[in-house]
Design a protein that fits this description.
The chain has 312 residues and is mainly alpha-helical. It folds into 2 domains: 2-145 and 278-304, no CATH class; 148-266, no CATH class. 53% of the residues lie in helices and 6% in strands. Helix 3 (33-59) packs across helix 11 and helix 4 (69-96) packs parallel to helix 11. The longest helix is centred in the first third of the chain and has 28 residues, at 69-96. It binds zinc ion. Zinc ion binds next to strand 4 and helix 10. Residues 292-312 are annotated as: Disordered.
């Protein structure tokens, strides 16, 4: 026993300055470990909730471009994901602090009260998550899947195009910059080559031109009439097109869908970070971590009672 203690003492006193510094940093960071675990669990639950909302949108054929139902579906999705994040945070808290299945159970009086499973908590988490999502710059419709014949859920920046021609070299360079920064406007990937995607698609525009009255079509063909009308902000025909950055797989699926007149929805990355602020990614996490702060009041009680410490 004495020889073991002697060895430990020798071991502690023979630490190099670097090892002592590492130990000191480890000690300083130890209180942050429960926060880090709870943040990771909450973020996972929030992402799973947003993925479930997008899957439900896909099943119900509601896309980011669907009027009314698109934004409403996204709003409900954010509420669902935030409520899920709150519940995951509560379960994690209980597990970390000895009240859950994985922890060391202590005396009932010392355990935090199990307050998470109430309709009130679910509703408050959902409402708080929705409010934070909007305040942090989130767009509800972007939670729903992308419709390949419409502007995608990931779309951030685009540029005007003067017709159905392919993008010039200069515009392709600019589109490549958008693509590497923001990703494909339909699925969010930044891999592969960029395609200058006309929105609305060329076929839809040509179909609408064909459907125009003959007199208007003749007027559009007269020299400078189209240019002059556009300069005056009067569009003699369909909506002016714009270029959006798109990946090749989405371009191929889109060509097939538009050709056959079908609506095709695609999944996009859940927590996609684009060129602008992505602070809304944290809306669910902030909502979930409010359950961590409510734990602080019982900390002293836990130390005196059931708190045995975690693996950190
Ligand atoms: Zn894509």
């Amino acid at each position: 026993m004495d020889s073991g203690r002697h060895f430990q003492h020798r071991h502690a006193t023979h630490l190099t300055p670097l090892e002592r510094r590492i130990n000191a940093v480890g000690e300083a960071l130890r209180p942050l470990v429960p926060y880090a675990i709870q943040t990771a669990v909450t973020m996972g639950a929030y992402s799973a909730g947003l993925a479930a909302a997008q899957t439900l949108g896909m099943a119900a054929r509601v896309s980011c471009a669907t009027p009314v139902l698109g934004p409403v579906g996204g709003l409900l999705g954010v509420g669902l994901a935030s409520a899920l994040a709150g519940q995951a945070s509560l379960l994690c808290r209980e597990s970390l602090h000895g009240g859950g299945r994985g922890g060391t159970p202590g005396p009932a009086a010392a355990r935090p009260a199990r307050r998470g499973w109430s309709a009130e908590t679910l509703l408050v988490d959902a409402a708080l998550g929705i409010a934070l999502f909007k305040l942090m710059g989130g767009r509800f419709r972007s939670v729903m899947p992308s419709d390949l014949s419409r502007v995608g859920a990931i779309a951030l920046e685009s540029m005007p195009t003067r017709g159905i021609e392919y993008a010039s070299r200069g515009k392709r360079r600019e589109l490549f910059r958008f693509f590497k920064r923001d990703g494909c406007h339909h699925c969010g990937t930044r891999r592969g080559d960029v395609i200058g995607d006309h929105m609305p698609p060329n076929k839809l525009v040509l179909d609408r031109v064909e459907a125009m009255p003959a007199a208007l079509r003749t007027l559009r063909r007269l020299p400078f009439v189209k240019e002059a009308s556009e300069a005056l902000g009067v569009h003699l025909g369909p909506t002016p097109q714009r270029y959006y950055p798109q990946c090749q797989p989405c371009a191929l699926k889109q060509a097939s869908a538009v050709k056959h007149g079908k609506t095709r929805l695609v999944f996009h990355q859940i927590l996609h970070s684009g060129g602008r602020s992505s602070a809304w990614h944290w809306a669910g996490v902030v909502t979930g971590l409010r359950h961590h702060s409510s734990e602080a009041g019982t900390r002293g009680q836990r130390r005196a009672g059931s708190w045995k410490g975690g693996p950190w």
